[in-house]
C-alpha cells in the first residue's frame, strides 16, 4: 500500500512537473513567436534603413559629382580670368605704345607745321623784297 501511495505521489509529482514543463514550453513558444515577430520587424526596419542609406549614398555621390564639376568650372573661370587679365595687360601696353607713337607724330606734325610756317614767312619776305 505504501508503495502504491509513493507511486501515486510520484505520478502526481511527475504530472505537476509535466504540467509545469508544458506551461514553460507554451511560454517559450509564445516568447519565440514574439521574438520571431520582433525579428521580422527588425529585418523590415533594417531593409528600410538600407534603402535610405543607399538613397543617401546615391545623393552624396551626385552632390560630390556636382561639387567636382563646380570646382572644375571655378578653375576654368579662374584660368579664363587670368587669361583675360593677361590679354588686358597686353592691350593696355599696346594702347600705351600707340598713344606714345601718336604723341610723337603729333609733335612731329607741330614741328613740321612750324617749319612750313617759317618757310612761308621766308617765302613771303623774299617775294616782297623781290618786288
Summarize the model shown:
This protein has 131 residues and is mostly helical. It is built from 1 helix and no strands.
* H/I helix tally: 1
- Class derived from helix and strand content: mainly alpha
Order of helices and strands: H
Strand tally is 0
Helix content estimate: over 70%
Structure, explained:
- By secondary structure, this protein is mainly α.
- 98% of the residues lie in helices and 0% in strands.
- The chain is built from 1 helix and no strands.
- The longest helix is centred in the middle third of the chain and has 129 residues, at 2-130.
- It is rod-shaped and about 185 Å long.
- The chain starts with a helix and ends with a helix.
Task: Give a quick set of tags describing it.
1 helix, 131 residues, mainly alpha
Amino acid at each position: 500500500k505504501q508503495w502504491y501511495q509513493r507511486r501515486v505521489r510520484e505520478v502526481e509529482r511527475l504530472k505537476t512537473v509535466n504540467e509545469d514543463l508544458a506551461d514553460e514550453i507554451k511560454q517559450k513558444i509564445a516568447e519565440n513567436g514574439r521574438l520571431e515577430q520582433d525579428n521580422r520587424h527588425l529585418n523590415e526596419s533594417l531593409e528600410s534603413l538600407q534603402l535610405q542609406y543607399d538613397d543617401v549614398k546615391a545623393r552624396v555621390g551626385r552632390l560630390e559629382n556636382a561639387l567636382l564639376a563646380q570646382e572644375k568650372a571655378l578653375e576654368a573661370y579662374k584660368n579664363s580670368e587670368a587669361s583675360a587679365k593677361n590679354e588686358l595687360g597686353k592691350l593696355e601696353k599696346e594702347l600705351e605704345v600707340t598713344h606714345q607713337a601718336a604723341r610723337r607724330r603729333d609733335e612731329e606734325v607741330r614741328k613740321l607745321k612750324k617749319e612750313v610756317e617759317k618757310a612761308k614767312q621766308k617765302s613771303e619776305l623774299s617775294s616782297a623784297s623781290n618786288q
